[in-house]
Amino acid sequence: MRSLIIGGTGFVGAYLAEHLCSLGHKVAVTKLPGEQRFFAERESFVMQDVEVFDLDLLSQGAVLSLLREWKADYIFHLAAQSSVALSWKKPELTVDVNIKGSLHLLEALREIADQTDLPDAVQKPGRKVRVLLVGSGEEYGSVLPQEVPVQETACPRPGNIYAASKACQNMIGRIYAQAYGLDIMMVRPFNHIGRCQSPVFVVADFCRQAAQIEAGKKEPVIRVGNLDVKRDFTDVRDVVRAYALLAEFGKAGETYNVGSGRARSIREMLRIVLEHSSAEIRVEVDEKKLRPVDVPVMEADIRKLQEATGWAPRIALEQTVQEMLDDWRANINL
């Protein structure tokens, strides 16, 4: 099997590439021109056989050229501006990458599907490339109390620019699957965490601050945002297992939640970090870390995913947090 990961050199892409390699797939990933390969900096990601292509997703011609050159059985579309906080600051960038970029991929797939008589076509009679569009649990937005845990059929009420862009991607993907017969599945992952995650995200931020305090590089204070919101956290290794299973067993045109099925407060995640830290640490609210709008509870109903694939999370979050903290301790100067 040949798998192509669009936006594959970042946090999730590195884990997904590693997992697909372990399954025996021939894997290629794309990165922005000039972007550093994420896994090249970490000894834990050893994937010498992964091909890396430069790709500007905002150039439809470049996307089409790559799909014709590298004939994939599976395409995982991870490329995104994925920070909610940054989406407030750079809404135009978020829309360009998350909506226009996805549309360029889908248009390239449609054009190739219409040219099945060409010798270099990605899609040939009797064979379709399977595509997984990765969205976000943030798409659901202001979930009503009676909707928790949230099902895929719930009405999206996105509460930020990032979530709105991903909800749009989902709708466009479903339209292309239905209108053009493309083998496209959509996934809404909830919060996922793991070693090497950017401190833009909350648990990684807590772990980095704790490691800096232990190393004497920071005053013994962790600065936080809203600790009362609840999110559904899953280890990234479990998440990419779900992606691979959905690419194989998912149904075209359908959307699947990926999460643990249990929401935990940010306060509880901070408690786990503090329990694993060797330092005495105070907690202070930083107004800069508060969002204009914060959804109180996000918890996934994962029955549809489990029925389609048999997937279940395997890695306890306490183990994940310990590994993240140890990773920041070993890479304190990053």
**DSSP summary, beta strand count:** 13
Along the chain, the helix and strand elements come as: EHEEHEHHEHEEHEEEHEEHEHH
Q: Low-confidence parts, pLDDT < 50 over ≥5 residues?
A: 117-126
Radius of gyration: 20 Å
Widest beta sheet: strand line-up:
3-2-1-4-5-6-11
Number of DSSP helical runs: 10
- Classify the helix fraction into a percent range: 25-40%
Average pLDDT confidence is 91
Structural class comes to alpha/beta
Tell me the strand percentage band: 15-25%
Gross morphology: globular
Largest sheet: 7 strands, parallel
Q: Could you tell me how far the N terminus lies from the C terminus, measured between alpha carbons in angstroms?
A: 36 Å
Structural summary, described in words:
The protein is an alpha/beta fold. It has 10 helices and 13 strands. The strands form 4 sheets. Strands 3-2-1-4-5-6-11 form a 7-stranded parallel sheet, with helices on both faces. The protein has a two-stranded parallel ribbon with strand order 7-10. Strands 8-13 form a two-stranded parallel ribbon. Strand 5 (130-134), helix 5 (161-180) and strand 6 form a beta-alpha-beta unit. The longest helix is centred in the N-terminal third of the chain and has 23 residues, at 91-113. It is globular, with a radius of gyration of 20 Å. The protein starts with a strand and ends with a helix. Mean pLDDT is 91; it is low at 117-126.
